[in-house]
Amino acid sequence: MSNSDSYGDAFGRRLKAQASSFASQALPKSTLAVTELRYDEPEFVLSTPPAEEDAFVLGVHFQLFERYEYWENGRAAPVSTLRPGDTIIYDVKRKPTFHLNSAFHSVHFYLPTSALHTLADDAEVPRIQELRYQPGVSHADRFLRSMAEALLPLFTAPARVSQVVIDHLMLAVGHHVASTYGGLARSQAPTIHGLTRRQTQRAKELLVSDLSGSIRLADIARECGLSPSRFSRAFRASVGEAPHRWLIRQRIERAKALLRDDEVSLAEIALTCGFCDQSHFTRSFAASTGMSPGRWRRAALA
Known about the structure:
The chain is of the alpha+beta class. It is built from 11 helices and 10 strands. The protein folds into 3 domains: 8-181, Jelly Rolls; 197-240; 249-301, Orthogonal Bundle (Arc Repressor Mutant, subunit A), CATH 1.10.10.60.
């Protein structure tokens, strides 16, 4: 919902923290979001309760929060400790608040209940109304921790990050949360059908039409007459990799062509090929080819 204060800048203002965020409309009529928060100067006051809505927030903390005092609907939970890397779950409709007695650095995933309903409908199983969690108590969730860590570098330049990548990551988070904490399970293993030849061609055309990846996954899925979740599964079945992985390979191939012209700078190539910056380009190129762009260029022009 657009007036939520449980993600984005409004979330940061409510907790008096620096915020950077991404939002996704990969699911119809729902906003999925992820927000990085940095709170450096404890004020030793209670946090402001969130606006009432039917949604959940899952926070991955990167700093020790030694004495975590937490309330839901005004009722105190046992005092606990948030350990670096652990996850804690909040039910927004229960008005969670906590004592701002410690600095923190965290990444919070926002999922409205409507998104969980959509995921359940897509899997053809009963809808999810609640998530299983213990108020005020953190736990280890390796998947969410790895997702949060992968997103950290992207928060430094959010305007340059591919929307396809964010849509894909948020869908993955949604499926993980629904299955791990909401009991989402299929009665039988789903039959995964690939895309038709025409659908595959159209999807690839849309992906490469803008290497920055600004097109939304939902728009590509709509062109193929599928839901975003089913499109992602079908694309992988047909092409052998997820849409955002395929897009990265196209960026690398385009970069190789540009690297053969030694008058084009690495910074220019990075932006032309849709990378956040030269550093992001270098990391992605090295991961794909085993060498830096500069070294690859020297070898290609030798």
